[in-house]
C-alpha cells in the first residue's frame, strides 16, 4: 500500500473520531525511511494502542503491543474482518487511496466464522499439496534464468530484475500457469503494477487484467485439472464456485508475491550491509536462514495491516474502542515491543514473530513454509552464482518505498564479477 497523506504532524481529529487531538497521521517523509521511530514515538506517547489518522484524516487505532495484537487477532468475536462494520464509511469517498484494501470483497480475506473456515480450509489443503522439494527446484530454475539474464554485465538492480519476479513466477507455477510464455510474463508485470505501481502505471487496469486471466485459468482447470493449487481448489469437496476461487486465488497470489519479494530484498540488504553476515568470529558466514528470520523480526515486509473492525464497544490497552472502529495491526511494532525484548535486544533466533499475523486469519498453513522456500532459494542461489556480490552504492544511499504498510527498498543496485555464460 502506498500512503499519500500529509506530513506526520499531530492533527485535530475529524468529526466522530475516536482519537484525541494527539492522533498522528500515518504518513510523512520522516517516517517512511525509519518507521521504527514512529512506533517508538507512538508507544512512548500513547502506550500499546495509539490513535492514528489514515489518509484523509480518517481515524483508526494502531495496535503496537505484542500481547495486545495477539489478543485482537485471537478474538474474532470482538475484532472481526468484515469491513462493512466500519463506522467511518460516510466519510470515505470513491477515490480514497486505501479503498482497495478496505472495501469489502467476496474473498477469504473478509469472510468470517464458518464461511472463513470453509474458504481457508480449501486454500490450506490446496497449498498443502505443493511439494516443497519441487517448489525449491522450480525456484532454482527461475533464479538461474533471471541471474543468467544479467550475470554477464557485472551489475544489476535486484529488486526489479530478481526479487519481484521470482516469487511471482513461482506462485503462478504453483497455481498451474504455463511457464515461459508472453501470457505469464504479462501477468507477472500486471501483478507488480497492481500491487506496487510505479509512476505512470495504472494499477486499477492491471488488477482487472489479473482478474480476467485468473478467471480464464480457473475455467481451464475445470476442463483439464492438473497437479496444481488451482485444480485442487476446483476439485475440493467444499464446492467453491468459480468466482470464489478467483477471489481467493488472487488473495493467495498477492500475499505470496509482494511480501516475499520484499523479504528477499530486505534479506539481501542485510547480508550486504551487516558485517555479522559477512564473516563471523570463526571465519564462516552466518546462515541465510538467520538473516531471513532476523528480517522478519526487524524489517518485516508487511509493517502494518488494515485491519479489524470492533464488533462492539470494548477495552484494549486501556483504550475504549467503539463498535465499528477500525483497528490497524502494527505487526512491525509488535515484533519489537520492549515488553517482549527487554534491554532493546531483539533475539532473531526464534520464530515467534507476528510477520505472518496470528489467529484464525493469519497466513494459512503452509503458506509461510512455501514463502520460506521461495525466499531462501532465491537468496542462496544468488549468493552461490555471484559469490562476490557487493552493493553498488553506500548503504545509507538505499531508500525505502514511501509506505507505512509495506517495508521494501525502491531498488537494490549491486556489482559483481561478470560471469561469461
Annotation keywords:
Cytochrome p450; 11 strands; 15 helices; 3-stranded antiparallel β-sheet; globular; 10% strand; 421 residues; single chain; alpha+beta; 6-stranded mixed β-sheet
Describe the structure.
- It comes from Streptomyces minutiscleroticus.
- Belongs to the cytochrome P450 family.
- This is Cytochrome P450.
- InterPro entries: Cyt_P450_B, Cyt_P450_sf.
- One of its GO terms (molecular function) is oxidoreductase activity, acting on paired donors, with incorporation or reduction of molecular oxygen.
- It is a single chain.
- The protein has 421 residues and is an alpha+beta fold.
- It has a single domain, classed as Orthogonal Bundle (Cytochrome p450), CATH 1.10.630.
- 45% of the residues lie in helices and 10% in strands.
- The protein has 15 helices and 11 strands.
- The strands form 3 sheets. A 6-stranded mixed sheet has the order 1-2-3-9-6-4.
- Strand 2 (49-54) and strand 3 (58-63) form a beta hairpin.
- It is globular.
- Residues 1-20 and 280-284 have low confidence and may be disordered.
